[in-house]
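Postdoc handover notes: sequence design on the structure in folder B. Input tokens:
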């Protein structure tokens, strides 16, 4: 009994560096596999293999449906996995599903045909659906590990920040693989095989360094419909969904439209390097500051305060840079919005509080269903963002693939760069303001959760 209590205390309050870095390493294959796929699959099937546009659109519709619906089903699959029979309900899918995901990634880039449109279409649909299904299963289980291996919110924030840093660094090889396409298909295929091998290694490290806690082995599971209803009855989660929708929306038009932002930032290599440095130094620096402020202010108060300053600075900057003579101030606006947007480091840890709260009510941890329902409601924002951004560019007369833009287009880019994200931030702050879990409630949940976990361990023993 004493041994169980000691293990519980350690896992509840502080993670070892081995576990933190072991968990964070899971962000590497997430970026490598998903990054290369996102950048290359359209170019590969639509441009290289010349898939007919009507078949391509049909395939995208099928992909969109699968992409939206598989999250809650796979989340439920993970939650209901027999932990006693299989030894885990998260690690098993990372350890064995990860290599399968990497194998599917490699197979995608070997054409079934170069001329037969039906075979190319079938390969396209099978590839994107199989890839997304395994991505969802593995990444969902990896994310679900974090709140399960520690109930300490500061430890979750720390592990999440390190994972974000790993994911950012992993974006460099993604760009390199993209450049390999210019050297031919074979070079591209070899590069992707190397990416897959690295990813498998990372999955293995995660599976051996992160262990699921024993007190959840006998948690009650719920049927699919009941699990959805119980998830959507969690008030804090509903407010989180509204907030996270705006975050996903902003991210979808962030770096994606950097090629247009450079037209007002300088439109040269120095401007690109400067944007990169701001993103890294200011962005991750702000993430660190937010984590340090968390014990004093709590996540909710940090998001509200930083968000308000973000919005105020954004509107002031927009008024100033309307005049071409003061357009150079756009860099100050960029630095300001990046720093006061650093609360994004709390995006996922904030949701884990809803998972904790639900466990107190239901007696079971159900990270999989929460992650699945979150994806179901927020993934549309990934498409809505680019749709609105494209409409704005077209409305203001943006000239495609041109370094010289009319004044109206530059004005539209300024709106896209500053005003649209500010509006999204305001909407998100409304949801956060009414979010019921503040620093005091979070502390109470942590205390009650520790008691519940101790009771579960005692029953298990």
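Designed sequence:
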């Amino acid at each position: 009994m004493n041994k169980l209590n000691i293990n519980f205390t350690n896992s509840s309050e502080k993670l070892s560096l081995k576990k933190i870095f072991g968990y964070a390493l899971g962000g590497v294959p997430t970026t490598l596999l998903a990054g290369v796929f996102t950048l290359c699959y359209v170019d590969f099937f639509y441009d290289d293999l010349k898939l007919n546009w009507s078949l391509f659109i049909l395939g995208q519709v099928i992909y969109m449906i699968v992409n939206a619906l598989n999250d809650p089903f796979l989340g439920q699959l993970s939650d209901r996995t027999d932990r006693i029979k299989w030894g885990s309900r998260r690690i098993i899918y990372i350890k064995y599903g990860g290599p399968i995901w990497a194998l599917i990634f490699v197979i995608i880039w070997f054409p079934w045909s170069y001329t037969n449109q039906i075979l190319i279409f079938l390969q396209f649909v099978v590839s994107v659906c199989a890839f997304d299904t395994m991505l969802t299963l593995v990444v969902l289980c990896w994310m679900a590990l974090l709140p399960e291996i520690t109930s300490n919110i500061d430890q979750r924030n720390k592990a999440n920040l390190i994972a974000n840093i790993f994911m950012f660094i992993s974006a460099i090889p993604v760009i390199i693989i993209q450049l390999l396409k210019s050297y031919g298909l074979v070079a591209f295929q070899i590069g992707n095989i190397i990416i897959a091998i690295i990813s498998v290694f990372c999955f293995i490290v995660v599976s051996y360094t992160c262990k699921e806690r024993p007190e959840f082995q006998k948690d009650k599971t719920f049927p699919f419909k009941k699990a959805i209803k119980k998830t959507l009855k969690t008030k804090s989660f509903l407010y989180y969904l509204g907030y996270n929708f705006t975050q996903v929306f902003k991210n979808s038009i962030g770096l994606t439209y950097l090629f247009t932002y450079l037209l007002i930032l300088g439109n040269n290599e120095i401007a690109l390097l400067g944007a990169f440095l701001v993103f890294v130094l200011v962005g991750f620096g702000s993430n660190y500051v937010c984590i340090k402020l968390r014990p004093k202010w709590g996540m909710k108060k940090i998001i509200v305060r930083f968000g308000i300053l973000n919005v105020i600075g954004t509107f002031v900057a927009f008024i100033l840079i309307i005049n071409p003579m003061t357009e150079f101030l756009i860099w100050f606006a960029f630095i300001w919005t990046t720093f006061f947007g650093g609360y994004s480091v709390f995006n996922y840890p904030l949701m884990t509080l809803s998972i904790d709260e639900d466990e107190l009510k239901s007696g079971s941890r159900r990270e999989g269903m929460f992650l699945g329902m979150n994806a179901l409601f927020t993934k549309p924002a990934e498409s809505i963002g680019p749709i609105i951004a494209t409409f704005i560019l077209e409305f203001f007369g943006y000239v495609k693939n041109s370094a010289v833009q009319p004044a109206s287009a530059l004005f539209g880019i300024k709106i896209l760069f500053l005003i649209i994200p500010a509006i999204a931030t305001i909407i998100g702050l409304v949801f956060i303001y009414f979010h019921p879990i503040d620093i005091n409630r979070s502390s109470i949940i942590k205390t009650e959760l520790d008691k519940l976990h101790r009771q579960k361990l005692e029953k298990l023993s």
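Context for whoever picks this up: Residues 1-12 have pLDDT under 50 and may be disordered. Don't rerun without checking with the PI first.
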